[in-house]
Amino acid sequence: MAGAKDYSNKQVSDNREQVEHHVREILKLIGENVEREGLLDTPARVTRMYEEIFSGYAVDPRDVLGVTFDEQHEELVIVKDIVYYSQCEHHMAPFFGVAHIGYIPSGKIAGLSKLARLVDAVSRRLQVQERITSQIADILEEVLKPHGVMVVVEGEHLCMCARGVKKPGSKTVTSAVRGQFRQSSALRSEFLELLKR
Ligand SMILES: [Zn+2]
């Protein structure tokens, strides 16, 4: 995935031994035998995974967009099906899905792969889906100053599947609209229609 491996959570690497220690303690507290073979390297593996899945903290999402200029194109730009993986901040359980971004440039555009980097930077943290959605919209609005932005995020939450209400397969859909998308239902419909293709 674009940008996913380019940076990692340095705070985790700098405190590797402590993080491993605490993972080991949790394993003991759930009743595990931390000396058995399958678990010997688990604290180290979890720590390396944290470097990656929490790599969003290492970057300011505003900086990943790599803005370029194009005065010509002031029509709808859509990048859809951008896969993301995140961790729900309530349970530290994974949720994942796809994000769809549409915007109408007013001179500044972002490289298409940079939109995927933005999604990574925002989602590789402890998050809630609603905030991922609004942060993507707000950052695009702030950095590109487009005529309008619409973001739709779909997500499947393991904390909904594996625990609590236990509803596997249910999907959460969130959206955020800014600028012209807020005023024009025709524009919102055009965006949603193009997502279906
Ligand atoms: Zn949760």
From TrEMBL:
Chain segments annotated as coiled-coil in the UniProt record: none
UniProt keyword annotations, A-Z: GTP-binding, Hydrolase, Metal-binding, Nucleotide-binding, One-carbon metabolism, Zinc
Gene3D superfamilies: 1.10.286.10, 3.30.1130.10
Catalyzed reaction equations: GTP + H2O = 7,8-dihydroneopterin 3'-triphosphate + formate + H(+)
Molecular function, one GO term: GTP binding
GO BP terms in the entry: one-carbon metabolic process; tetrahydrobiopterin biosynthetic process; tetrahydrofolate biosynthetic process
Pfam families attached to this UniProt entry: GTP_cyclohydroI
SUPFAM superfamilies: Tetrahydrobiopterin biosynthesis enzymes-like
Record: residues binding Zn(2+): C88, H91, C159
Primary enzyme class: hydrolase
Pathway note: Cofactor biosynthesis; 7,8-dihydroneopterin triphosphate biosynthesis; 7,8-dihydroneopterin triphosphate from GTP: step 1/1
GO cellular component: cytoplasm
EC number(s) per entry: 3.5.4.16
Domain of life: Bacteria
Chain ranges of the GTP cyclohydrolase I domain: 20-195
Family matches, as PANTHER family: GTP CYCLOHYDROLASE 1, GTP CYCLOHYDROLASE I
Assembly and oligomerization: Homopolymer.
Family recorded in the similarity comment: Belongs to the GTP cyclohydrolase I family.
Name of the protein described by the UniProt record: GTP cyclohydrolase 1
Gene source species: Cohnella herbarum
Lineage, broadest ranks: Bacteria, Bacillati, Bacillota, Bacilli, Bacillales
